[in-house]
Design brief:
The complex is a heterodimer of chains A (257) and B (277).
Chain A lengths: L4 E11 L4 E12 L4 E5 L6 H9 L6 E6 L2 E2 L7 E4 L11 H5 L1 H5 L5 H13 L15 H14 L4 E5 L7 H17 L3 E5 L3 H7 L2 E6 L4 E7 L2 H5 L2 H4 L5 H17 L1
Parallel strand pairs in A: 3-8, 3-9, 6-7, 7-8
Antiparallel strand pairs in A: 1-2, 1-4, 4-5, 9-10
Helix pairs in contact in A: 4-5, 5-6, 7-10
Chain B lengths: L8 H46 L5 H4 L2 H14 L1 H33 L1 H16 L6 H8 L3 H25 L3 H9 L4 H39 L4 H10 L3 H29 L4
Helix pairs in contact in B: 3-11, 4-5, 4-7, 4-9, 4-10, 6-7, 7-9, 8-9, 9-10, 9-11, 10-11
Classes of the chains: A alpha/beta (257), B mainly alpha (277).
């Protein structure tokens, strides 16, 4: 099977007027179809850089990135990207915000519009189509952002700390919703997060990155019982705490280097 | 939204309505008081002016007084002489103000599109902007002839660069993450501009409209001072030359009224355009 994402010895250098600094180096990664993986690590480990490379927003200084076996050159509708905050356009209604991707890729027609309408309804936003973002709560807005990302039907979703701006309760609810939605539709996902327990609860594999420059430190496979449970209940599964402390310990040693 | 029926629900509803009604009543009475004081101040000013003129506290030749001014305006309205001058000036102002905002915004688009061009043009814009543009008036008159075009160009010279700088600045201040949203869907630079940059900058563009209303009047009146064939600026100049200060003050009063009306139109457009923000 062709991996959904394949990174081959990626390195990236950021250049400013003051210096050129190496952000990530020697990144190898393969993500299989339907897999949910998380990238965790201390700040400055290049998590967002790796996502940007996969999304085609950033051309790596070295190495090659492939999505569905094709080399990445620029953003493509096969890849959906969710940002830290919802970043809905305040001058557009919820419906028009959800449709922006279809508009930009010129795939907006009555049929795709009704698909998006159904998605909104599934997320409990059926009544909100004509409202403006300012009229919605933070959790609702992030759900709209999820619909916006799913509207173009990407096979791969990149989630760049999508829960970091939410309160704890909303965050737990959204974790469940996202895992359920993606599993249902057979999507592949890469999550970047600061929150270790979120990473373990949601994913099939956790990748711990080292920093300065960012590179892969260690891979952790999540046991079946935790993977199969909903993220909320996964935190109560046997083995969860042990795994948490193991990864936590590794992160501490990285921090001391 | 679901809500359980609690015993106090109906009474608490009435309570809320009461609080809301009191709030609105207070707000209304505040508005009324402000308006009353505003109108009284205006009336007092005119009464004082009238009295000062009639009792010779001030030099009537220089300062005139309200009834004389209103009579003058009325006569000019009846004789039809006013309308021609008013039409010319308002025409020049509206054209100068719309064109100034439009050209300024288009320039902003241009330098947003090409950072290279922006860097090249930057010192020229700064120099031109710090120049006293009124001094260019005579050159425009020689270039475009003493008339409509020269006056509009004088107005443009005052409004365009400021508009360009303000609008360009607002283009740059658009949240880069909103742009990222469009880019992740493979949006082109043109789409980024149409879907994000431009709608996000409407508030800045409308606020330059407001500034430009005032600037356009300066440009037009100065232009008319220099060209002087017709228009309210010409009336002011003419009144000054024949020492008819009643005519000067009448023209100023009319300018105040028309300029306020134009400003209110812009405020109305702002409200239409910027709901939901």
């Amino acid at each position: 099977m062709v991996p959904v994402v394949e990174l081959n010895d990626i390195a990236h250098v950021y250049v400013t007027d003051r210096e050129a600094s190496l952000a990530v180096e020697g990144i190898h990664l393969k993500v299989e179809p339907g897999e949910f993986i998380s990238l965790v690590g201390p700040s400055g480990c290049g998590k967002t850089t790796i996502l940007s490379v996969i999304a085609g927003l950033l051309a790596p200084s070295k190495g090659a990135a492939y999505v569905n076996g094709k080399p990445v050159n620029g953003p493509s509708p096969e890849v959906g990207y969710m940002l830290q905050q919802d970043y809905l356009f305040p001058w557009r209604t919820i419906m028009d915000n959800a449709l922006i991707g279809l508009e930009l890729t010129e795939r907006l027609n009555p049929q795709s519009r009704s698909v998006v309408g159904n998605l909104l309804r599934e997320m409990g936003l059926g009544e909100s189509g004509n409202l403006y973002p300012a009229q919605l709560s933070g959790g609702m807005r992030q759900r709209v952002a999820l619909v916006r990302t799913l509207a173009t039907d990407p096979g791969l979703l990149l989630l760049d700390e999508p829960f970091s701006a939410l309160d704890y309760q909303t965050k737990l609810q959204l974790e469940d919703l996202i895992v359920e939605t993606l599993k249902e539709r057979g999507k592949t996902a890469i999550l970047v997060t600061h929150d270790l327990s979120e990473a373990i609860a949601m994913s099939d594999r956790v990748i711990l990155l080292n920093r300065n420059p960012g590179r892969v430190h260690r891979l952790f496979d999540i046991p079946d019982n935790i993977r199969r449970a909903q993220p909320f209940f996964a935190r109560k599964e046997p083995g969860f705490n042990e795994l948490f402390h193991e990864i936590w310990g590794e992160m501490q040693t990285i921090g001391k280097e | 939204m679901t809500s359980r029926d609690e015993p106090s629900a109906s009474s608490s509803k009435g309570w809320l309505q009461n609080i809301y009604a009191t709030h609105m009543k207070r707000k209304k009475s505040m508005q009324n008081r402000v308006l009353t004081v505003q109108l009284s101040l205006l009336l007092l000013f005119f009464i004082w002016w009238e009295a000062a003129g009639r009792f010779k506290w001030i030099d009537v030749l220089l300062f005139s007084y309200p009834t004389k001014i209103f009579a003058n305006i009325w006569d000019n309205m009846i004789s039809g002489e006013l309308w021609g001058h008013l039409g010319v000036t308002v025409g020049e102002t509206v054209v100068g103000f719309l064109l100034g905002t439009l050209v300024g915004t288009l320039m902003a688009v241009l330098i947003w599109w090409s950072p290279f061009l922006n860097k090249v043009l930057d010192p020229y814009m700064v120099v031109f902007n710090s120049m006293p543009k009124v001094a260019l008036g005579p050159i425009f008159i020689v270039m475009f002839g003493a008339g409509f075009t020269a006056i509009v160009v004088t107005t443009l010279s005052i409004t365009v660069i400021v508009t360009t700088l303000v609008v360009y600045n607002s283009f740059n201040e658009v949240d880069s993450n909103l742009i990222k949203v469009v880019r992740t869907f493979g949006g082109t630079k043109r789409q980024v501009f149409q879907r994000v940059i431009l709608p996000a900058s409407y508030p800045a563009i409308v606020s330059t409209l407001k500034v430009n209303v005032g600037m356009a009047w300066v440009g037009v009146i100065v232009g008319e001072f220099l060209v002087a064939k017709s228009g309210l600026g010409y009336l002011i100049m003419y009144g000054f030359q024949v020492f008819n200060f009643t005519l000067v003050l009448s023209s100023l009063l009319i300018i105040a009224v028309v300029a306020t009306a134009m400003y209110q139109i812009v405020v109305y457009i702002e409200r239409k355009l910027l709901t939901h923000r």
